[in-house]
Amino acid sequence: MGELRAVLFDMDGTLIDTERVWLEVETGVVAGLGGAWGPEHQEAVIGGSMLSTATYIKELTGSPLSAVEVGVRLNDAMLERLRTGVPMMSGAKELLSAVSAAGVICGLVSSTYRRLMEAGLESIGREYFAVTVAGDEVARPKPDPEPYALAARLLGVPPGECVAIEDSPNGVASAEAAGCVTIAVPGELPIPPAPGRTVIASLTELDLPSLRALATDA
To answer: Which of 6, 73, 139, 165 lies in the 20 to 30 Å Cα band around 174?
Structure first.
C-alpha cells in the first residue's frame, strides 16, 4: 500500500457517543409495544441494519406492526434525540481534524439511515467527509462488505488502500470483507485481535503518524 490515501469512519459508537442513546430509544419503543428491552437485546443488534433491528423487536414483542413500521418508530425517536446534540467520542474531533488538515480524504460509512446520519453530521461536522454512505443506501448492509466497497469506489480509492475505523463486530466484518485495513475500537461488544486487525481502546490512541504507519505496513 505504501501511503495513507483514505480513512473511512463508522459513525455510531465510533465518532459520536450514541450507543447509550440507542439503548434508551430501543427501550422506549419496545415498552410502547408491550415488551421489555435490556443490554442483552441491544448486544444482539449492535452494528446491524435498521431493518434487522426492527425485525428483532417485532419478533421479540409479537407486535402486529410490520418491521418497517417498527423501524419508523425507532428512527423518529432517535431523530428527536440527535437533534438535541450528541457528544463526540474521546479523540474523535482531534483525529478528524488532523486527517483533514493533512489532506487525506475521509468517508463516513454507517448502518444508520440517511436522515439520522444527516442529524449526526450536525454534531460531527459534515465538512470532514468527501463521501457518506448510509444504511438505507445499500442493498446489503454491514456485515456485508457492500457499504465499505461503495465508499471506496465513490472516493476512487481501492479498498486495500483505505483504513477503516469501527466499533462493532458487524462493522469490522464489513470493512475487512471489503479489503480495508481495519482498526477496531470496541464499544459495547468485545472484538478480539486478528491477523491484519488493530484493536485499540480509544481514538485517543490514534494520530496521523500511527494511521500512516498502519497503511504502510498493510
So the answer is: 73
